[in-house]
Amino acid sequence: MGGDYAPEIVVKGARLARVRYPDARFLFFGDEAKIAPLLKADAALSACSSIHHTDQAVTGDAKPSQVIRSGRQTSMWKAIEAVKNGEAAGVVSAGNTGALMAMAKLIMRPLPGIDRPAICGLFPTKLGETTMLDLGANAQCDARNLVEFAVMGECFARAILGVERPSVGLLNIGSEDAKGTDMLRQASQILRSSHLDMEFKGFIEGDDITKGTVDVVVTDGFTGNVALKTAEGTAKMFAAFLKNAIKSSILAQIGMLLAKPVIAQVVARTDPRRYNGALFVGLNGVVVKSHGGTDSIGFANAIGVAVDMIARDLNSKIAEQLAHIEAQEAVMAEAVSE
Amino acid sequence: MGGDYAPEIVVKGARLARVRYPDARFLFFGDEAKIAPLLKADAALSACSSIHHTDQAVTGDAKPSQVIRSGRQTSMWKAIEAVKNGEAAGVVSAGNTGALMAMAKLIMRPLPGIDRPAICGLFPTKLGETTMLDLGANAQCDARNLVEFAVMGECFARAILGVERPSVGLLNIGSEDAKGTDMLRQASQILRSSHLDMEFKGFIEGDDITKGTVDVVVTDGFTGNVALKTAEGTAKMFAAFLKNAIKSSILAQIGMLLAKPVIAQVVARTDPRRYNGALFVGLNGVVVKSHGGTDSIGFANAIGVAVDMIARDLNSKIAEQLAHIEAQEAVMAEAVSE
Predict the structure, then answer these.
(1) Does A176 sit within 8 Å of B233, measured CB to CB?
(2) Segment A59-85, tens digit of pLDDT
(3) Domains assigned to chain B
(4) pTM for the structure as a whole
(5) Chain A residues within an 8 Å CB radius of B236
(6) Is B251 in Cβ contact with A229 (below 8 Å)?
(7) Which of A225, A234, A252 sits opposite B231 (nearest CB)?
(8) What is the CB neighbour count within 10 angstroms for residue B200?
């Protein structure tokens, strides 16, 4: 069990999730001596939970290459293995992201046709919510990876945002066809020519993410991670500026008391805990990564993402879309060889 | 003369700048029939201005490769040439960014030792301001380009932020040495080993930009452009959420009247017009790019950046720092050949 405040927030998050999902069962992997007293405090949760003891945990700074060699006794490994063995339907972790992805790929294996599983999350926008991937699993990508991300993100948006025909955009530094990198132009070309049943909108720019221009923002893991953290940082800076400015004036403090209910709405709409729980898409199983620094409300939301994904048959939809691309690639290869 | 609202905001911006910089002279390149009536409205500005007529302008969608072949009669070309010929000390444009950079490189030439000039701008942070480059001139970079950006950005921060010893960070997706791309690890290695007199802080992440962790954020033009636009979009989304929420409640509207003066402070601190004016660093001359959609206040600020850079001897400081890197490269090359 990982993250900055484990196991407390993990068990507390499960307490909240149990109320929302009364049919869920919880398997806790970690130090029994620490988990058992926390579980005892909630008889209803205890009744649908089991503890799987191990005193080994993946540390926050462990290298993925190292934990996949020597991490078989860790709570993370055992939790993923439980999914692989059919004892659990999905895994939620607030631990080391790189280690979680490396172990999940090794134990669960990627879906057929998927070269690189990706991290997929939700963003608030002016119009509602958007999906973005990859948020950091793959720092270096090629055009084919981006095409796979587009397919997976579109299926995810359909399942989790409930959009019937999600629109998809490739994150670039201009919307014209000639802009950006070779990789992006090639990915755009494949997406346009592969007869996918997809609302592909071409290139979008950084400010389109929060404008809500598309339902799915596709990018490499480097750019996606920087964009995600830059947006988080900008939001925090604004909140800090407002807080400090209001503190400096009695009138403003009175004013803020009057505005409090509507400010609370804005805070709730953009609360990072609401968007906690990024899905690792492209794996033979459900793996959800919670932010390491979240609280029990955020962790409960991450469990919610896992429950949603388990309830929906995302992977078979992804396989169906990939078949279109592979058919198109075969046609192109044949055209070249003729 | 370019940008969305030229020539009106350009002339109006110059009116504001003239008051701030009484010694400045203004050369307007563009359609005399349009510029002359605007200039007439301000006798003081007219007295220190000249109009250089041409009816050709670079359009917003023109390709850089095309304008450098056939754009010799455009206002942009003539303005850059005026700097090259010593008739003007610097050029400010709200026109097509790619065309401006391509022409400036061709006419002014990059500084000796600089492979790729970059676009350098300012960002608000929790602690004050930070410099970021490249904001979009070079979508694809190598490690040596990033090292040059670090040197140029550090000199820029010293000149324009007035920081005696600016700290420099490489934008990455984690702060550990093994994170990110090969390019970033190599750039970090060169910066650490080249005995530069530079406060190099290693890798930083997206949220460090607005935290103010470093004075200079170094990144490739693709990532920098996405980060800049993502931050702008996030700020606009928050402003829109607040505005809509307040509109929905009479109490909140009264509250906002009381808080208005402090809200105005926050708005002023993060006003994009305040940060308008990105410098093209690494050229034999001063070129400042204004946002195409800015107003006269924003354009006046872009003129201010040009005046500041002309007043300081940025380029000789850049050359001095580059000499350290080249000396180190020579040592390394010798070590390899032995």
Answers:
(1) no
(2) 988 889 999 999 999 999 999 999 999
(3) 119-274+313-338 (3.40.718.10)
(4) 0.90
(5) 126, 207, 210
(6) no
(7) A234
(8) 18
